[in-house]
Amino acid sequence: MTVAVAPDLFRQLLRRHAAAVVVITAPGTGFTATSFTSVSLDPPLVSFCLAKSASAWPAINASDTVAVHVLGHDQEGVARTFATRGIDRLAAHGAWREGPDGVPLLDGVLARLVCRVVERVTAGDHTIVLASPLDGEHRADEADTPLLYHAGRYSFVRHAA
Fold this sequence. Notes:
Layout: H1 7-14, E1 19-20, E2 22-26, E3 29-33, E4 37-41, E5 44-51, H2 57-62, E6 65-70, H3 76-83, H4 89-93, E7 96-98, E8 104-106, E9 111-123, E10 126-138, E11 148-150, E12 153-155
Antiparallel strand pairs: 1-11, 2-3, 2-6, 4-5, 5-10, 6-9, 7-8, 9-10, 11-12
């Protein structure tokens, strides 16, 4: 019989994994995530995970369109705003415009994908959302680096000059 790793050890192990920080938006909401990843090139698919207990879950679950915003190394404040509980995150951030299907598009991000949700898969206390990118854009400067989350704090990789 296989016994699952204890929750505290599981958290400690995952703190060793560095992940890019994104903000995912749907009409009326947005949240900070590190669970974003590419899934498939043919067809193009991405995924992210969200706890069913999260305040953003009802809007994400109801929306057919979401936007994924890859944050740059200089956007820790954006990540913190969209991770803060009990506030209107979009109002607190302020720098966004309405995109397709009413999805908020954040200004000044490193890269953005507007995606059509194709499937939601229950996975324990979370849901894995699979989405197909419909449109995207990115900053022109290839030297820009993403914001990372590692060992419980935000960081970024400095490129050698």
